[in-house]
Automatic annotation (TrEMBL):
<dbReference type="InterPro" id="IPR004082">
    <property type="entry name" value="OBERON"/>
</dbReference>
<dbReference type="GO" id="GO:0010078">
    <property type="term" value="P:maintenance of root meristem identity"/>
</dbReference>
<dbReference type="GO" id="GO:0010492">
    <property type="term" value="P:maintenance of shoot apical meristem identity"/>
</dbReference>
<dbReference type="GO" id="GO:0010071">
    <property type="term" value="P:root meristem specification"/>
</dbReference>
<protein>
    <recommendedName>
        <fullName>Oberon coiled-coil region domain-containing protein</fullName>
    </recommendedName>
</protein>
<feature type="domain" description="Oberon coiled-coil region">
    <location>
        <begin position="22"/>
        <end position="95"/>
    </location>
</feature>
<dbReference type="Pfam" id="PF16312">
    <property type="entry name" value="Oberon_cc"/>
</dbReference>
<dbReference type="GO" id="GO:0005634">
    <property type="term" value="C:nucleus"/>
</dbReference>
<dbReference type="InterPro" id="IPR032535">
    <property type="entry name" value="Oberon_CC"/>
</dbReference>
<dbReference type="GO" id="GO:0010468">
    <property type="term" value="P:regulation of gene expression"/>
</dbReference>
Length: 110
């Protein structure tokens, strides 16, 4: 059995205290690194969300423009259709009138 040496006991106690402090620092640094890493991930996801929101807003704006364009095109096609239909009806009336005159002329000749 060794004799009691206060120097060695003090050294062991100091060494244990230093080791405990280093372990605590290591754990704190590890936790800090984890928090920093999570913070970085959160910032990236927030930026990603803003990007998608921006793209969605652009897509909504494009959809509104395309709807407006489609309505204008549809209106133009309807106007063209009714103009052509009107001309056709007018021509049909003229043809009917000419047929009536030809029938009348034929009756006179017979």
């Amino acid at each position: 059995m060794r004799p009691f040496d206060p120097f060695i006991n003090d050294f062991n106690a100091s060494f244990t205290a230093i080791k405990t402090i280093e372990d605590e620092r290591s754990v704190k640094q590890s936790k800090k690194d984890e928090v920093d890493s999570l913070g970085c991930i959160v910032r990236i996801k927030e930026l990603e969300a803003r990007l998608f929101q921006s793209r969605a807003a652009d897509a909504r704006g494009e959809a509104v423009s395309l709807r407006r364009l489609a309505r204008l095109e549809s209106k133009k096609l309807n106007e063209t259709y009714y103009e052509k239909l009107s001309k056709l009806c007018s021509q049909e009336t003229e043809v009917a009138c000419l047929l009536t005159k030809m029938e009348a002329a034929k009756q006179l000749l017979v």
